[in-house]
Amino acid sequence: NGFSILPLATAVLVLDFLCCFAKVLGWREALQSVNGGVIMTIASSFGISAALTQTGAAHALANALLSAGLSFGPLGVLITLYTGTALLTNIISNTATCVMMIPVAAHISEELQGMENSELNLKTLIIMV
After folding, report:
1. Would you call 6 helix, strand, or coil by DSSP?
2. H or E stretch including 105?
3. Three-state helix/strand/coil letters over 10-71
4. Exposure string for 72-108, b = 16+ CB within 10 A, e = fewer
5. Whole-angstrom Cα distance, residue 37 to residue 40?
6. What SS3 state is found at 115?
7. Which of 29, 36, 85, 100 is the most exposed place for a label (fewest CB within 10 A)?
8. Distances (CA, A) of 69 to 24, 73, 112, 119, 123
9. Residue 116: predicted pLDDT
């Protein structure tokens, strides 16, 4: 967050409770607005992301995207990462794709940090995902 007072998740929960206590939002309305399917998709995506990292699949995918994009420079890397993410969203949900591609973007960022004249950093690549 911008103020570095609380982590974002904690700040959101505090604001939710404040809205309920101030009667801006009712407890029943707050509970009904939580979509269990979305929560389960996000939770399972973290497991898949961890599996991709542990098995080396994220590393292999990142290297494939890098080798395809590096011949066109930093813009080529961004385009291949975006294209890979877009293609993956046709197979699985957008949320799962986003969580799964973060380790790939992190590995691409690590590889690019070792290269000279690389303007891409982790924030840029994660925003791209």
Report:
1. coil
2. helix 94-113
3. HHHHHHHHHHHHCCCCCHHHHHHCCCHHHHHHHHHHHHHHHHHHHHCHHHHHHHHHHHHHHH
4. eebeebbbbbbebbeebeeeebeebbbbbbbbbbbbb
5. 5
6. coil
7. 36
8. 49, 7, 12, 14, 18
9. 57
With tokens 């794709």, the residue in question is 97
> In this structure, are residues 38 and 95 in contact, taking their beta carbons and an 8 Å threshold?
yes
Q: What is the pLDDT along the chain (129 residues), one digit of tens a residue?
A: 455 677 767 887 888 888 888 888 888 888 888 788 877 877 887 888 888 888 988 889 888 988 898 888 878 888 998 998 999 889 888 887 888 888 888 888 888 776 655 566 666 666 666
92's tokens: 């699985």
Q: Which two tokens stand for residue 17?
A: 């409770």
Residue 1: per-residue pLDDT = 43
Tell me how far apart the 2 most distant CA atoms of the chain are, in Å: 57
pLDDT recorded at residue 90: 92
